[in-house]
Design goal:
About 70% of the residues lie in helices and about 0% in strands. The protein is mainly alpha-helical. The two termini are about 40 Å apart.
Length: about 80
């Protein structure tokens, strides 16, 4: 698909962007892909936080959170080492 985009940028910004190659189609496409992914992750994070907040009970202590983080890291490390 081909889309034409017109940007109204201050001259200084346009020159800097041009110098960095940011106004070329491949680079603009990469920037848009990154932003789409960032937006998706933000939506997922918000949904996850909403889900967490919906659970009744007391908030986890910092020590409990650290235990969970340590467990996840240990599991990942074990999977990485098993894959070697």
């Amino acid at each position: 698909m081909s889309i034409t985009i017109q940007l109204d940028l201050p001259d200084a910004l346009a020159e800097k962007a041009r110098a960095e190659g940011l106004l070329q189609s491949p680079r603009l496409a990469a920037l848009l892909e990154e932003e789409v992914e960032r937006a998706r992750l933000a939506r997922e994070t918000i949904a996850m936080l909403d889900e967490i907040r919906s659970h009744p009970g007391e908030p986890m202590s910092l020590e409990d959170i650290q235990k969970v983080v340590d467990e996840v890291r240990a599991e990942r490390r074990a999977r990485r080492e098993a894959g070697r």
